[in-house]
Each structure stands twice: as structure tokens, then as C-alpha cells.
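Hi U.,

Before I forget, here's the chain from the pilot set. I'm dumping it here mostly so it's searchable later in email.
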Amino acid sequence: MDVWIDRPELAQLIAARVAERPVVVLTGIRQVGKSALLRHLFPTHRYLTLDLPSLAEAAERDPEQLLREHPTPLLIDEVQYAPALFRHLKRSVDADRTPGRFVLSGSQKFVLMREVSESLAGRASVIEIEGLRGVEALAAQPPFDECDLLLRHGFPELIANPRLDAAAWLRDYTVTYLERDLRAILNVSSLRDFERFLRLLALRGGGLLNQSELARDVGIAVSTVGQWLSALTTAGLVVLLEPWFSNRAKRLVKSPKVYFTEVSLQTSLCGIATREELLRSPLLSALWETFVFGELRRAQQQQQGSSRIFFYRDNAREADFLIDRGGRISLFDAKWNEQPDRAAARALEGVIDRIGADVVDRAALLCRAANRYPISERVAAQPWQRISR
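Structure:
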């Protein structure tokens, strides 16, 4: 039986913005639950989806009439399919700035954010929606474990319905997304090259980005790699994590690390379809690192703080993730182990020595441990579920 998955922290964030602003815009990749979440949170709002070609055409042809026929408060889904509508939304909001009048969502971030910036600047609050948090997924399906998360995580439909063949669903998702959105936007002449690019990028997930090497392996120009990466990051499928530096640290790398925003999509692109394949794969640690990064990002978004996530690497030391909160530092390494030992903490110990213990508030290995416990005087093993504590 399918289940509704509660997302309390995200729901609280959205409700707060809707209570404050006349327009709230939700964006994010397809199938992360934007529409279902909005309809669940605002059942008394009228609902309109422009994913239907007839309604999109009507909204584009006569947006003023459409808004008269659908009074506020109004949810408009896939709003990017009617660019002409945004000018009329601006006019309506300028006449009446009552909070919560329009809640908009869309999956084509390229078009959506261009229209929002041109017509609704200063009038709209934008929230980037990502997939489920790990704790939300496990609460919805208690039999699931970390292997299930790496194979299904992020997409509510895969969590809510454990009967679905996740490998087939993710393959279909990749094909549909390529054909419907990215290929059209990028004007990709060779779908085969683009698919190869995606798969080779997935194999490099969690590693330093080398565009020249990637271009050589795919057989395309370096400039093309840059264009495609820019599109993936703008669409919200990929994140480039920048290295951290300060006056205390020298000889740091300059290249970013590349991560997929949904680890299950990366797992699928790497050709891993089953628990057995996952546990045998040399990519297991990299996929776990992608998952942990996603959890850190989601926690940061929902806390609405001013901190930023980086990674640390110099010629001898490395930390997977460094969070800088106004000069106070938290350090994390992602470890698949259930009980990492003191040897696993040496990398973080070295980074602490390098940047200075006086600025480091905490250092932890985010792992599958049941409880938090100290590994050394300065580094602890911490369950990934307690990532924000």
C-alpha cells in the first residue's frame, strides 16, 4: 500500500514563506514531490496545472482571463509553460500584496527562474525543493536501511511504493528527463554522447572535477562539457562543491568536487541495480559520500542559516566536508562503516592540526553507527541521522 510521506521541516519552511509573501515559488527537479506537497499543505487553495497543453495554451494566449477564472489563493503547477502569465501575475500582486495569493511550482528551472527574475523580483520568495531526507524515507518505510536509500532515495514514489522496480523507474526517469527537458534546452545533437557524459560523470561523483579528462573520455570538446555541466547545475541535478581556504592554509586545490543531488540517480547511472551489486561495488564509499552530502545540504536549507559547505584538501590532508559558520568550523568525513575506529579519524585529526583547533567546533565521522561515541579526543563517530545535531 502506498503511503504519504511527511516532510515536517520542509512543510514548516514553505508555510512560513506563504504566510509572509504574496508569491512563493517552488522549484526542483522532476518527481521530488513538489506538487503533492503543495496540494497536501494547502488543500483549500485552488489548483491549476499547466502540464496540460490545453491549459498552458490558454494561459499563454489570454492570461488575464485565466486568472479571472481561477481566483486566489491559487496553486499553479508547471508554471514555466506559460511565460506570458508572469507579467499578469506581477500586475495582480502589485494591486494586492496579501500573503499567500500565488504559490507557483515548476521543474524547468531555466525558464522558471528567468521569468521570476524578470517579472516577480522583490515580490516572490523562491524555495529549492530537493528529494526526501533520509530520516523521512526511513520513517515512511521502517524496513528500509541504508542500502535501500542508496538505491531508491530522494524520490518519494520509490519510497512510498516499495513494490516498484527502482532500477527500471530510474532508467525511465533518465530517458524521459533527457528527452523532455535537457536535450531540448541544450540542443544536444548526439543523445548518445550526452548519455555517455552523464554516466562517466556519475562514475566520478564525489571526486575532483577534471573537465579536460571528462571531455577526452566522452569524445567531446571541453567547452561542451562546460555547457552541459552548467545546465545540470542550473537544473538542480548536479552540485559543484568548492574547496575551502583561509590565510592559515596553503597549497589548497582549486578544482571543485562534483556530486549528484539524488544519490539513487547516480547509483542507477553507475549501472548498480541491486543490493548485492551495491555491496560488491568499489563505488560504495563514493555513493555513501554523495548521500551524506545530500543530507548536509537538506539540513542546511531547512535550518535557513548562513553557513556554507565546502571540502578541504591540501597536499597531505583531506576532509570530505567543511561547514563554515562565521569563521567557526565543523568537519565531517563520510564513512560507510558501522563502527569506524581511530585510524578512520586520522584524516580529520590532520585537518584540525592544519587549520587550528581553536576554530573547530566539532569533527565527526558520519556513519551507520547506532549511537554517537568518541573515537579520539577531538573526533567522534556520529550516526548520519543526527547530522544537524
